[in-house]
Amino acid sequence: MPHVLTAAELPVAELLRRADDWRTRLQANPTPPVQPRAVLIALLFYEPSTRTRAAFEQASVLLGYHPLVITAQASSVAKGESLHDTVRTLCAQGVRAIVMRHPQAGAPQAAAQVATAPILNAGDGAHEHPTQAMLDLYTLWRHFGMPDPATRWLTGRKVAIVGDIRHSRVARSNLTLLTQAGAEVWLCAPPTLMPDAPLPNAMLTHDADAAVANADVVMALRLQTERMQQGLLPSLNAYRRDYQINAERLRRAKQAIRQQQAEHDLRTAEYYERTGHPGSAVFYYELVRRRYAGTRYADLATQRKEHLLALAQAGRPAPGNDPWAILQAKWKEWFGDPQPAVTPASSQVPAPTAPTQSAPPLNPSSPPTSATETKPGVPNPLP
Question: In angstroms, how far is CA 34 from the centroid of its own chain?
């Protein structure tokens, strides 16, 4: 097994499939498999941890391994033992892998230089947290119906990450994996909690409402006060007011999504009306009226629906049934506002006059002349 040091190195598609395979297996048979001998997984944590440490301990047990938990406060690290010596000692004891959390960025890479067992980065300073990002991506993958993981399956999805971006290793690893999958990622924080170096492939904003507007996914980051210097925030209350992800802010985000969908449904109804499909137009107007009751979209849809029904009851065709109107609508759809070089044929041809004696009668069996030749589906402008 190779080292897991950064998110960019992960074989994402393979890991998503394997993770779901293991989930299915454990649901069918929650009894851990029996390893041929006791296999140790070292959990080397130089920082306090609850969720990551508990998750790796649980995963080790469910896979039939034995977690060997080592903390900096309760090991020779407290006596001054170097990272290299600690890693060498664990490898000499035959551990199968080392899961490492460290406050210094780049520590897992340093450990990998001397380790004979795989190093799994469980967070290094404000640098990376690839295993957390992989878990987040797996959650989204299942939520969106488990599409082909080898594709850019998050294309068209907006993901907002709000909070302490400057000190967040989770934000950096998530940015890597989410953009690889095609997502549009917004990073939102106060100016003092944005990173100094630009983060590629991300939209940066200080406006939390703009970040969550129309978002398909919202991630909230905690304030990492253990890494902060004084003066980064004017007050906790001000931060809570402007950046807390609460029910009210999510409600406003959902309203924006709802408005966008209402506009789309109303435009769909107008398109069907314009192109001569009054039945489909009435269906969509009724959908808008019911789905967005109490909004201006519902009022407009009610007016247009009643107008179309009144035309039908009066036996008059809907405006969209006129072939020239359909042609104009198609022109506008494809090229914008129509600026036709010609006008309808009916306006070019003068009113017909009674035939004179010298005019030869038309032979119905003979083909029309080229000047008045008709084509299937296009009415002949001449009587």
Answer: 40
CA distance readout (Å), 146 to 134, 137, 140, 142, 182: 14, 11, 8, 5, 15
Of 264, 177, 263, the closest CA to residue 217 belongs to: 177
pTM: 0.67
Sequential pLDDT tens for the chain (383 residues): 589 999 999 999 999 999 999 989 888 888 877 777 789 999 999 999 999 999 999 999 988 899 999 998 888 888 889 999 999 999 999 999 999 999 999 999 999 999 999 999 999 999 999 999 999 999 999 988 999 999 999 999 999 999 999 999 999 999 999 999 999 999 999 999 999 888 889 999 999 999 998 888 999 999 888 777 766 787 888 899 999 998 888 877 777 777 778 888 999 999 888 888 888 899 999 999 998 888 889 999 999 999 999 888 887 766 555 555 655 666 666 666 645 444 444 444 444 444 444 444 434 444 444 444 444 444 443 33
Q: Of these residues, 129, 166, 172, 304, which one is catalytic? A: 129
Final residue in a domain of this structure, among 245, 264, 299: 245
Q: What amino acid occupies position 111?
A: A
Do 92 and 14 fall within a single domain? Answer: yes
Active site residue 240: no
Q: Which candidate in 79, 343, 356, 369 is catalytic?
A: 79
Q: How far apart are CA 38 and CA 64, in angstroms?
A: 9
Inside any domain, residue 29: yes
Count: domains in the chain: 3
Active site residue 88: no
Range of the domain at 277: 253-321
